[in-house]
Amino acid sequence: MKKLIFVVFAALLWLPLTAQLSFGLKAGVGTTDVDVTALKVGQGAADELVFQLENANFGLHAGIFIQAKIGSFLIQPEVLFNSSSADFRVTDNRSGQMVENILREKYQNLDIPLMMGFKLGPVRLMGGPVGHIFLQSESELTSVDGYEQMFDKLTYGWQAGLGIDIWKIMIDLRYEGNFDNYGNHISVGGTHYSFDKAPSRIIGSIGFRF
Question: N or C: which end of the chain has fewer CB within 10 A?
């Protein structure tokens, strides 16, 4: 986390010396796309706890950005508060009597993309790394015996996409990939688990540049 914060602040100190600066506000929605195999905990059907992703709900984000323009080259650090949730179908056979519930988890993160790219007329083509700083979570999964949350404080991914500028309005559509498997915060009985694939997101946002 310290390295990511250092890189962002170093960029912010360097940009005023070399570039045309603007800043603004942005907000939008994101949808998580992840096709994962059910996560099984235990040995055999008679002693098994199964987590299946039922639905990854739309998330909301809002925050600030600074955009620096050097000729046609752009660099754009952002700080965005992101809130999302997911529903899990949990099947518990551990007592010998199957219990099945749909349980929801809510997540709140601080997303810090560092986007770079080029502006061609009104169109921007941009990409770069993104850090996700975990803030907090509310989970109905804590009702499952032995379940705990073990979130990493900082995870990484990348974003790429295009934007269109209309006067001071900025419209962006991005694809995000991540380097950690989905659900890697799941812990049962002190053992850490995760699903078998990393999540991706489609992110749409609208911003206003001052």
Answer: C
